[in-house]
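Here is an idea for our session: we take a single protein and study its fold together. Once you have written the record down, we can walk along the chain together.
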Amino acid sequence: MTTKRKPYVRTMTPTWWQKLGFYRFYMIREGTSVPTVWFSILLICGLFSLKSGPESWAGFVSFLQNPIVIILNLITLAAALLHTKTWFELAPKAANIIIKDEKMGPEPVIKGLWAVTIVATVVILFIALFW
């Protein structure tokens, strides 16, 4: 049995996600994976240069001091902070935390995650700078 009706196919433009703010922010957040790839490759190159000796390490450090690399690393830091912020806001919403038969909202958990992150960052920076 054949039919002469044409099925309805909704057109979808490549810019469909730009129409709503929610989708734009979602695409930006998902785009934070690109700078993360850059930083992962940079770390791997740093490990290989560290393994190859002092001359190779000195070359890597001078590469890191290039203004373009510094700008890319600042962009990577901003992307990581955005992703961290959205993750800290999302993770507690996915967990049902119940204390004494009362469901707890996500705000205390978010504040706790930020506190742990800040303390760990300060400790790591203190060790790295003053050890």
Observations:
- The chain has a mean pLDDT of 87.
- Helices lie at 21-31, 33-51, 54-64, 67-94, 107-130.
- Residues 67-94 form the longest helix (28 residues).
